[in-house]
Amino acid sequence: MGGGLCAAAACPGLTLSQTSAVLYIDESKLPPEIHQHFETEGIQVTFSPYNAITTCIESAVNELSPSDKIWISEKSSIALTSLVPENMLLTDISPVSLMKTIKNATEVDGMINAHIRDASALCRYFAWLEKEVALGNKVTEISGATKLKQFRSELDEFVGLSFETISSVGPNAAIIHYSPDPTTDRPITDQHIYLCDSGAQFQDGTTDVTRTIHLGTPTDFEKESFTRVFKGAFAIRSCIFPNKLKGNYLDTLARKPLWNIGLDYLHGTSHGIGS
What we know:
Creatine Amidinohydrolase; six-stranded mixed beta sheet
């Protein structure tokens, strides 16, 4: 295209042209850190009242030639999308999103280093937890998560948690995205399965690791269920599949060992990790 405008109108709104970036938001609500961040990154941003994005799009429609395009996010409201004539409207996925789907070499190295560093904290935590439970010392979902955060905070490049730690015992471990609170906090013992889904933000990468352990003797049903989940995960890991095949085509491989005995899990099979 010879020229055009790109508009993203989630809240706040944003318009980009070949020469400018305008953020539509109540500037009085922005903390000083926002301005400092833009300045540090060398990003020139103009601030404008939120409702002014409508005027901007209307002006672009009038000033651009019919062969130019106005690229509007597919998540924008119909109120904004309808301002653009159909022949000028473009709603394809952003090339930025496509570029973000594949990590560059620096991001790959950062992810590897972050996970190696993060693994040391997890190993320390599980070793500490095994010892504490064996000694009969009380550790709960909350206090366990707090201890894990402490181990992570001692690592180089640590920024914070990537999400609230899902520290869950027994029946709580079956609750998707469970987060312990004082009303549900269960002790971690050698009698029940313990699931720990956690991660951290480092300067060079992001982690998200789930581990399911038993500090005592699991039941035969727990052993079989765990083994069948592993078989499903290994089936995907060892599968050779065509390039660009969508993940839902592989999902059956993960679930089949469970389906064979009438079981399933009410959760997605996998997801990526950002940077």
